[in-house]
Amino acid sequence: MRTTRLLTAFLITLLVIAALVMSSCSDLNKELPVPVSGSQKVHEEGWTTASSANFHGEALRQTQYKLDECVSCHSKQYTGGVTGVSCMTSGCHVDANNVPKSPEACSTCHGSFSAPANNFSAAAPPRSVEGETDATSRGVGAHQKHLVTGTIGKATRCRECHTVPTQLNAAGHLGALPAEVAFNDTLARLTTAKGSFTTIPSYDASSLKCSNTFCHGSWKLRKATSTSQFAYADSVMVGENFSPTWTGGSSSATCGSCHGLPPKGHIVVPVSTCGTCHDGIVSSDGTITDKTRHVNGKINVFGQEYAF
To answer: What is the pLDDT of residue 253?
Structure first.
């Protein structure tokens, strides 16, 4: 009798364990598949093939990149877990140098998939979360112009326009598109005129335009507090407060659109002489030669930087 009870308890325990294992993987495939070549096949054919309709990237996109199901089988570090198959050493989640990178790296879902995990600028689209690569699409737009190339100014950081999550599942990160634009950092809302002019930046998700940003000319300088009063033709110098279209391309924000050449309130001078005072920053043909010192939140005159 005692042996029978022990055997019954043992069988019940086995059934419970089996149920737990099956439930942890059941969302990945509604029916557990038959063994293939001596191993358990959990995913559909094409799960790791980007061109397949069953590609796991598409499946995850449909669930807004909830990776909990992956973790339940491959472990929190995605190194294998109960499956013994690592998401990294399987040859999928690695960078261009074949260095393993977590599936939770920023550039897994947007930006350059092959970029190193610590290259945050490379997480800027293209590619967008939706897989778009054209700059005329909302998810791509001028990301590269802002974060990577720094077309005419200092490269912008992600946090200038977005709330950057500290981890994948941080509140507000994974959710419905489009991504929220929040001017959290100081550059877009920089206070100028020695603390007397504060701009309030905004973004219109319908027209795809940002307005009232320091970056695009919402600023003032006052002659009374300037160290270069000779350059003023008026009591104040102001930017153009331009509102560029996110998907408008290079023509949407040309040189002179954010401030006049020269700015309003500045004495009239030809562009070829800008470098006389703004030396090392602009050449005689108007080309910005040191982009790190342009649109950087500072006034650069005679080799010195001053607060706005």
So the answer is: 82
- State the pTM of this model: 0.79
Structure confidence by residue, pLDDT tens digits, 98-117? 999 999 999 999 999 999 99
Residue 190's closest CA among 202, 179, 200? 200
Q: How do residues 271-298 score in pLDDT, each as one tens digit? A: 999 999 999 999 999 999 999 999 999 9
Q: What distance in Å separates the CA atoms of residue 88 and residue 112, rounded to the nearest whole number? A: 16
Going from N- to C-terminal start, the domains of the chain cover: 18-104, 202-307
**CA distance readout (Å), 69 to 29, 190, 236:** 11, 43, 59
Kindly state the tokens that stand for 90: 């399987």
274-304 burial string, b = 16+ CB within 10 Å, else e? bbebbeebbeeeeebeebebbbbbebbbeee
- How distant, in Å, are the alpha carbons of 228, 242, 254, 256 from that of 261? 17, 14, 12, 6
Can you tell me the distance from the alpha carbon of 201 to that of 213, in angstroms, rounded to the nearest whole number? 5
Which backbone phi and psi does 305 adopt, to 5 degrees?
Answer: -110, 135
Type of residue found at 273: T
Determine the Cα–Cα distance for residues 164 and 308; give it in Å rounded to an integer. Answer: 27
Q: In the predicted model, is pLDDT for residue 20 greater than 60?
A: no
Q: Which pair of tokens denotes residue 166?
A: 């500290």
Residue 169 token pair: 């599942």
- Residue 98 CA, chain-centre distance (Å), reads 23
Q: What is the C-alpha to C-alpha distance for residues 130 and 109, in angstroms, rounded to an integer?
A: 9
Report yes or no: 209 and 244 within 8 Å, Cβ to Cβ.
yes
pLDDT digits (tens, 9 = 90+) for 111-157: 999 999 999 889 999 999 988 999 999 999 999 989 876 677 888 88
